[in-house]
Amino acid sequence: MIDLKDIFYEFSSRNALELIRKISNFHRAKGSFEYSKAREIIQNYLKNSTLLTFPMDKTYNTWQSPPSWNLKGGYLKYHRGKYIVSDLSLTPISAIFLSDKTDGVEKLEVFDVGKGETEEDYKNFEPGNAVLADGNPTLVYHYAIEKFNARCVLSYHMKAQDKSIGRTPELLPDTINYTSFPSFKNKYAFGYALSYDQFQELKEKLKKEKVLIEAFLDADQGTNNLEVLQEKIGKDTDQPAIILTAHLCHPKPGANDNASGSALLAEIMRVLEKFQDHLNRKIIGLWVAEMYGTATYLTTEFPKNAYVINLDMVGEDQFKTGSTLKLTPSPWEIPSFLAELLYVNLEYPDFRLSFEKYSGGSDHYMFSDPNLGIPAVSLTNWPDRYYHSSDDTVDKCSKNTLDWIGKAVLKTIYDLDNMSQEVSAQVKGKIINNHFKLVNVQSKLITNYVNYMTYLKLNQLSKYGDVEEELIEFFKEKIDFNLIPSQKRKVRKNIGPISDSWYNIEDIKWMNQIREKIPTFRDFLDVFLNVFELGFSKEEAIIIAKAELGIEEDLKAEVEHYLHRLKEEKLIESKV
Question: Which of 85, 354, 460, 562 has the fewest Cβ atoms within 10 angstroms?
Answer without folding.
Answer: 354
